[in-house]
Amino acid sequence: MMATTHVFTGLALVAPIAYFVPEFALALGVGATLGGLAPDFDLVFAHRRTLHFPVAGLAVAVPAVTVAAIAPSSPTFAGAAFAVTAWLHAASDALGGGPEMDPWNDRTERAVYDHVRRRWIRPRRWIRYDGAPEDAVVAVALAVPALLVFDGWFVAVIAGCVVVSLLYALLRRRLVAWTPGWLE
């Protein structure tokens, strides 16, 4: 899935909380956004292995949510939103294709690495590849709750990310041809 789809997943998850406790909305939104992006910083390492924790991430997410529930504050809400969204990002990568540049070719049976079991989880391909038309539809649908709940400059960021998602989905398959060989 696209990084923005992961961000919108986290934002959709925290939107109801932000609605009921608006004083923590920005912390929740920023935490979810960063958590949705963070696992993909492993693109320069072993993508979907170095910073993706589809099983072990739950061991961080649950305590973070517990701390936020016991001691609600901007930092605890942001930390919980970050941890849960990063875990969801890693876990949901198994719903798509593999991590290669052209996953529509179904070249690998490796979606995301499970550090607990020390093996790769196979791709389900419900969303065939990041930027697939179905990925764009899911991204836009998940952005709606955030667009309705958050306000100010953050809504502009979300709307900008929707535009980026749609443009990426339109160009995704062409991007491989435009990518330098050293990135493959």
Q: Could you explain how this protein is built, in words?
A:
- The protein is 58% helix and 3% strand.
- It is globular, with a radius of gyration of 16 Å.
- The longest helix is centred in the C-terminal third of the chain and has 26 residues, at 153-178.
- A two-stranded antiparallel sheet has the order 1-2.
- With 184 residues, the chain is mainly alpha-helical.
- Strand 1 (112-114) and strand 2 form a beta hairpin.
- The chain has one domain.
Secondary-structure class: mainly alpha
Largest sheet: 2 strands, antiparallel
Kindly report the average pLDDT value: 92
Radius of gyration: 16 Å
- Percent in strands: under 5%
Helix content: 55-70%
User: What is the number of strand segments?
Assistant: 2
Main β-sheet, spatial strand arrangement: 1-2
Low-confidence segments: none
Order of helices and strands: HHHHEEHH
Count of helices? Answer: 6
- Intertermini distance: 18 Å
Q: Please tell me what the overall shape is.
A: globular
Question: What's the number of domains?
Answer: 1
